[in-house]
Design goal:
This protein is an alpha/beta fold. It has 11 helices and 22 strands. Helix content is 26%, strand content 18%. The longest helix is centred in the C-terminal third of the chain and has 19 residues, at 376-394. Residues 4-27, 31-59 and 61-66 have low confidence and may be disordered.
């Protein structure tokens, strides 16, 4: 499913603040879509969210000036205080200092798996690059499946936004990385719908040696993969799990996946109409061979320190919980006893997090218009771009990073490698399913936290040796 574009007109009013492609449709959330402006139009450089409250989480100091010419959002977003630029995002997550050392993802490739794609993707990215002074890249867009188009729920428009969001976030974090978009002609929704086609695309990446990082901003409710909802669900999950295990352990692949936008629950039906009244999580973020990325609300304080809380607003929240399909992997068994007690031998989701609140996210240029898009669809590409930098710095693909992430969580470097999120929870406010509170260390709302890449990436490389 798209995470999850709603079945709304493409231009969405600000007050809707809904997912806009149904994530099965991608996991993506649209805040507001404005009239296009010329890419050279600028406004006050202070267009960044600020907070006078003291940070409640570990904050990453900004040695780089917080407001520069590169931090000016387009004039059509000038009334949005939560508009972040690529430079500001890199500063917030400790990427900018690596960028200044030449670690920009050069020589690496990130693959984005989507349904349909966007007909204006390259043109939109070109405008985006010009606006923010990013190096232009030529995208590879590959549609290798010779199958008829299938889009029964009219989700193609949502995938346009999802695809563009993925690409622009990856490019903002790792400007010199190559990006390949693999498109399926079948809409991925709930249950196994679209999953066999996506698995073919995943195999295509391996067979054609396209790259070692795959970004997946889509998800399927575990409930709809149960045999009583979709009889083919359990077997399809097994096939994917076998694929991921082989690809990560034998081909050096790294898979990043959005954790979902429905907080502590998810959909119960194949058309994504009805939220369940029980706690659950989503696939493929629940798979132990995948790195699941949850969502936060990113704020910058008046003293130019960044701090974050769990994303939970307007009925949408960071997906997280415990799997019905997978048991606790060995790397999560290393967590403190008090934390591990809630697992009940289940895989915990997510592993890590990044900004997802649509009121505090990166500006995007979609189909000729500037917009703010959120959801955990915006969070997974942050980590995908960061992994391109990590592979460049290491000089080789890091592959399966989860064991090393949790190894760092148990080390003295945890406080400097991650911004530990300790405020908020992911309770679903629509159907009132109790969520999980952010606490010190790992939690089922934001995992281990968000990255301080300048510290995390070198430590991650060392932890994998």
């Amino acid at each position: 499913m798209l995470l999850r574009p709603t079945r709304l007109p493409f231009i969405v009013a600000k007050e809707n603040r809904k997912n806009y492609a149904r994530l099965s449709i991608p996991l993506l959330l649209l805040l507001v879509l404005f009239t296009a402006c010329s890419p050279g139009s600028f406004t006050n450089p202070a267009a960044q969210p600020t907070s006078t409250a003291k940070p409640t989480q570990t904050a990453i100091p900004t040695s780089t000036p917080a407001s520069t010419a590169a931090d000016v959002c387009p004039i059509s977003l000038s009334n949005e205080p939560g508009c972040y630029t690529p430079h500001a995002f890199r500063v917030a997550y400790g990427v900018e200092s690596l960028f200044e050392q030449g670690f920009t993802g050069k020589g690496q490739t990130v693959i984005d798996i989507v349904s349909f794609g966007s007909p204006t993707l390259q043109a939109d990215l070109d405008v985006y690059d010009k606006q923010f002074g990013l190096p232009p890249i030529k995208l590879q867009i590959i549609s290798p499946l010779n199958e008829p188009i299938s889009d029964p729920d009219n989700q193609q428009g949502g995938w346009v936004g999802e695809t563009t969001l993925d690409v622009e976030v990856i490019h903002a974090i790792a400007p010199d990385a190559q990006i390949i978009v693999l498109t399926s002609p079948v809409a991925e929704t709930e249950g196994t719908i679209g999953l066999p086609e996506f698995l073919k695309l995943e195999q295509y990446v391996i067979d054609h040696k396209l790259g070692n990082i795959v970004s997946q901003s889509w998800g399927v409710s575990e409930l709809t993969l149960q045999a009583n909802i979709d009889p083919a669900g359990p077997q399809q999950v097994k096939q994917w799990d076998s694929f991921y295990q082989q690809a990560t352990t034998q081909q050096g692949m790294t898979y990043l996946s959005s954790s979902g936008d429905n907080g502590s629950t998810d959909y119960i039906d194949l058309h994504a109409k009805q939220l369940a009244h029980v706690q659950t999580t989503s696939f493929p973020g629940d798979d132990p061979w995948v790195t699941a990325v949850g969502g936060t609300r990113l704020l910058r304080s008046s003293d130019n320190m960044f701090n974050e809380s769990v994303w939970n607003s307007g009925g949408d929240a960071s997906g997280g919980g415990f799997s019905r399909f997978f048991s606790t992997p060995s790397y999560q068994q290393t967590l403190p006893t008090a934390t591990k007690s809630q697992f009940n031998n289940r895989r915990g989701v997510p592993d890590v997090a990044a900004a997802a609140d649509p009121s505090t996210v990166l500006a995007d240029y979609v189909s000729g218009q500037w917009t703010l898009i959120g959801g955990t669809s915006a969070a997974a590409p942050v980590w995908s771009g960061m992994m391109a930098i990590a592979n460049q710095m290491a000089g080789h693909p890091l592959g399966f990073i989860n064991p090393a992430l949790y190894k760092l969580a148990n080390s003295s470097s945890y406080a400097s490698d991650f911004r530990d999120i300790t405020l908020g929870d992911n309770t679903n406010q629509v159907v009132h399913v109790p969520g999980y509170a952010a606490v010190a260390g790992w939690d089922a709302a934001t995992g281990l936290g968000t990255p301080n890449a300048a510290k995390l990436i070198p430590d991650l490389i060392a932890a994998m040796k």
